[in-house]
Each structure stands twice: as structure tokens, then as C-alpha cells.
Amino acid sequence: MSKHICYVFFTVASGMLLSACAAQERSIRSEKSSVEAEPGRAKSQPIDIINQTLIDLSHTFNQQTIYWPTENGFRLIPEKAGITDKGYYYSSNRFMAAEHGGTHLDAPVHFNENGKPVDQLSPQQLMGEVALIDVTNACMENPDYQIGVADLRAWEQKTGRQLVDVIVLIRTGYAQHWPNRKKYLGTDRLGPEAVANLHFPGLAPEAARWLTEHRAIKAIGLDTASIDYGQSTRFESHVTLFKHQIPAFENVADMSRLPMQGATLVALPMKIGGGSGGPLRIVAWLPD
Ligand SMILES: [Zn+2]
């Protein structure tokens, strides 16, 4: 790779080539071809997001939003709504919520005292190509299913690629149960004693170890309440991922429109200083 990094933008309308730096056309060509020669590498091609098919992968935060049984739910406290004495309409509310609930990000500090908090995660780590691992069938049969190394390897075999420089999304199919707590969590009871009754799929600890020791992913997410399955008591997948500074997205919304590879995702949480997690808006767009 040349040491001169050029950001090259193509405008769709005119087909004009604009270069942010004054590089020679020859060096632009060599830069572009070397990028294209590396499969899986982010292209410096223009991103025309507006005209893409966008998929919203966040659930709405409201009174139905599912939180852990030991947490209070999301509260929107109305403050103002109406015509002011100056004649314009004005509304504002206040919200209260735990960091971990609804579609949210777990920052590495959530289970690792040396892990990064939310505000120290770079946007680059939270944007990238989606590798979709679909385990819907297995999870419909077994609510305690743990996604294993074999499931991850199956993606690699089908695509001929490795899980490197991608954001892994695991589709268990549980998003279809949202916001039914009984179906989604396995229990609709609240309080500490309800935790033992949680049943939903998650990532097997050995799969977390394999991903961190043998692969290089940017982040991982799934459509259940926790990256560890409901019956976990030691949260080993959390511990392993966060030791390696890999954040997790939980309660991701319906992924049924995502292809196995090629979709691009942006998952940006509220930038809470020192936060162990936070509400997350995830948007993906499909490959051309
Ligand atoms: Zn969490």
C-alpha cells in the first residue's frame, strides 16, 4: 500500500471523480486496484446511504421495552406539550433508563475493569460489514441453544471467508417475540428470583474464546437479551469478549432481511462518559 492515503469519492449523479487530495491519477488507480484486490477490506468507494435500502435494527424505547428482570423499565416523563403564550408549539420530556435494556451496547468495561467504556469505543469499531450467522432453526427447537464454533465455521464454509474485520450478527429469531417478555425471556416475572427462569439462546463460551483467539471481529450482536444464554450464571462469553475489547449489541431487532454477507452496519450508542453500556441505534444497508 502507498503511504499516501487518498479518500476518493464518486458522485453518483455526474459520475465525476473527485479526489480529496491532489494525487496523480496513476496513484489513485493503483490505490483503488490494491483495495479491490483484498477481499473483505473496506472499499474507499462512495457511500450513497440515502438511496440504499436501509434496515432499522433497533427496537423503539417505550413502556414495552424489555429490560433485565432486575431493572426498572424505560420511563418517559412528560414535561411540556402545548402552545406557549408566544404562540408556538413546544414539547419536551425527560427519560430514565438503565444502560442495559432495549437495543443497547455492552462496552468492555461491563465485565472487565480494564475494558473500555462506551465513550472510548471508536466509531470505526462500530461500523462495518455484517457477517450474519442464522441459527433460527436450532433456536426454535431449543430455547437454551448456544451458538457454537460449528455455527461460525458453517458461515466461513458457505462464504469461503474468515470472520475477520466484520461485525458478527447472530440471528436466533427471538426478535419476532418482542415485546412479549414470556416468550422473549422465558419468564415474565420480575426481580432477582426471576433470573433463574431465563431461557433464551446465546453465544457459547468456547465460541467466544475461538472468535477472540483465532479470528479478529470488530463487534458482535444478537437478537436476545444477553450475549450469554439465559441460563448462564458466570457470563463467560461476556468476560471473554470484553477481555479482548470486543463490544456486544443485545436485543437487536429483526434481521430477517439481512444477507449472509455484504450488508453494512452502523451501530452508534449514546456517548455516555464512563458508561458500561447504552441505548443503541443500529442501521444496516444492503449490498448493491
Ligand atoms: Zn448489556
Précis, in short:
The protein is α/β, with parallel strands linked by helices and 288 residues long. The protein has six helices and 14 strands.
- Cross-sheet strand order for the largest sheet: 6-12-11-9-7-13-14
Helical stretch count? 6
Task: Categorize the overall geometry.
Answer: globular
Helix content: 10-25%
Mean pLDDT comes to: 88
Largest sheet report: 7 strands, mixed, barrel
Catalogue the unreliable spans: 1-41
N-C termini distance: 26 Å
Second-tier CATH architecture of the largest domain: 3-Layer(bba) Sandwich
| CATH C-level category of the largest domain | Alpha Beta
SSE sequence, one letter per element = EEHEEEEEHEHEHEHEHEEE
Cofactors, ions, other ligands: zinc ion
Radius of gyration: 21 Å
Strand runs, count:
14
Describe the model.
The two termini are 26 Å apart. The longest helix is centred in the N-terminal third of the chain and has 12 residues, at 25-36. The chain has a seven-stranded mixed barrel. A hairpin with a 7-residue loop joins β13 and β14. α5 (205-214) runs parallel beside α6 (236-243). The protein has two domains: 8-46, no CATH class; 104-285, Glucose Oxidase, domain 1 (3-Layer(bba) Sandwich), CATH 3.50.30. The chain has six helices and 14 strands. By secondary structure, it is of the alpha/beta class. The structure holds zinc ion. Zinc ion (ZN) is lined by residues 100, 104, 106, 250, 277. Zinc ion is lined by residues 100, 104, 106, 250, 277.
